[in-house]
Structure formats: structure tokens, C-alpha cells
Automatic annotation (TrEMBL):
Gene: Rtraf
Lineage: Eukaryota, Metazoa, Chordata, Craniata, Vertebrata
Organism: Bucco capensis
Protein name (database record): RNA transcription, translation and transport factor protein
Family classification: Belongs to the RTRAF family.
Pfam families listed in its UniProt record: RLL
Transmembrane segments: none
Length: 217
């Protein structure tokens, strides 16, 4: 609902984000104005939101993340020792410390995240997202990744990613994945070129018989 969405944005700014001074929030608070979308677009730029005004779900998620970070920053002492309700009164603290131990691969959000990451990194997609992950985690792939390779160090800051996740750590991880993907493509292209050269070597060396007026073996 458009009205609820606008009220939600105003509430986030008033109660949690507080990027504007109170006297500067008038245009954003005027949710019934025809110019509200322009005010909201300016607000997104002012808080450095990386998404466009049309990307509602992504924008909401990003603004909520910003609000949570600011809330924690204002009350770090209060929240630093907090634990999730599900993690209380458990004996296996090491298990709870593992962030992926309770990952639900059937969760629609997880599936959407996998597909979104594949799109961002321009990796070939598969109808079954679990198959796409499995192909990246086969024994051969793991063994190949474990092999040490000598090479020159890469300065990530010199490679343009082409998109912004809104998080510096994720941006760096995406750059690394993109470079690894490009390396795989180059290896494939090298093998293709070798195959072409091998075929040309076979078909480009015929024996010529001038007496017969034809070329052949």
C-alpha cells in the first residue's frame, strides 16, 4: 500500500535513521503530496542508498539495515552481549557460533539470494539452484581450489566491479569471485584455441599431386 509505504519511510527517518534535522523532514513527512516521490528520491541519494526508487523491496531492506546499524551504534553496550532467543539455554555454544549451521536451504529468501548473487556475478544459472551450488562444490572443484597456484598479486581496487552491494566486504568478495570466474573462462578459451590449432594442423597439410590436378592424400 502506497500510504503505508510512505508512512514507513517517515517512521524510519523520524525514529531510527534521523539523517535530516527535524525541521528538514517536512517534504518527506508530507506523504499526500504529489512531489513526495521526488522528496523520497532525494532522501535516498542523501543517505547514499545504492538502489533506484523503483526497486522498492531492495530499498526497504537496505534502509532497514541502515536503521539496525544506527540503532546498534547508539546502544552498543545494551546489545553487545545479546543472544538470539533460540540460542539461549543451549549447551552446544560452538555449534551456535557457526553462522551457517542453521541455514535452511529450502527458505525462499535463501533461494532468491543465490539467484541474485548468480545474476550479480554473471554466472550461468540453473533451474535448480541447489544443482548450481552443487556444481561449485564437487570434489573435483574443491580439489582444484585446494591446489596452490603461483601468480602475481592482484590489486582489487584497480578492477571495476560494475555494481555496488552497499557493503565494502561484499564488494571485495564479489570482485574476487568475478576475477576467479574470468580466469576459468580464459582457461576454457585457451583449451578451445588449442583444439582449433590441433584440427587445423590435421586438415591444413594435404599432399598435392599436380599430375592429377587435384589436392588430396
Amino acid at each position: 500500500d502506497e500510504t503505508e509505504f510512505r508512512n514507513f519511510i517517515v517512521w524510519l527517518e523520524d525514529q531510527k535513521i534521523r539523517h535530516y534535522k527535524i525541521e528538514d523532514r517536512g517534504n518527506l513527512r508530507n506523504i499526500h503530496s504529489d512531489d513526495w516521490p521526488k522528496s523520497f528520491e532525494k532522501y535516498m541519494k542523501d543517505v547514499n542508498c545504492p538502489f533506484k526508487i523503483q526497486e522498492r523491496q531492495e530499498t526497504v531492506d537496505w534502509l532497514l539495515g541502515l536503521a539496525v546499524r544506527l540503532e546498534y551504534g547508539d546502544n552498543a553496550e545494551k546489545y553487545k552481549d545479546s543472544t538470539p532467543d533460540g540460542a539461549k539455554n543451549t549447551d552446544n555454544t560452538a555449534k551456535n557460533a557457526e553462522p551457517l549451521i542453521n541455514l535452511d536451504v529450502n527458505n525462499p529468501d535463501f533461494k532468491a539470494g543465490v539467484m541474485a548473487l548468480a545474476n550479480l556475478l554473471q554466472i550461468q544459472r540453473h533451474d535448480d539452484y541447489l544443482v548450481m551450488l552443487k556444481e561449485r562444490l564437487t570434489q573435483d572443484a574443491i580439489a582444484k581450489a585446494a591446489q596452490s597456484k603461483e601468480g602475481l598479486p592482484v590489486a582489487l581496487e584497480k578492477h571495476i566491479l560494475g555494481f555496488d552491494t552497499g557493503d565494502a566486504v561484499l564488494n571485495e568478495a564479489a570482485q574476487i569471485l568475478r576475477l576467479l570466474h574470468i580466469e576459468e573462462l580464459r582457461e576454457l578459451q585457451t583449451k578451445i584455441n588449442e583444439a582449433i590449432v590441433a584440427v587445423q594442423a590435421i586438415i591444413a597439410d594435404p599432399k598435392t599431386d599436380h599430375r592429377l590436378g587435384k589436392v588430396g592424400r
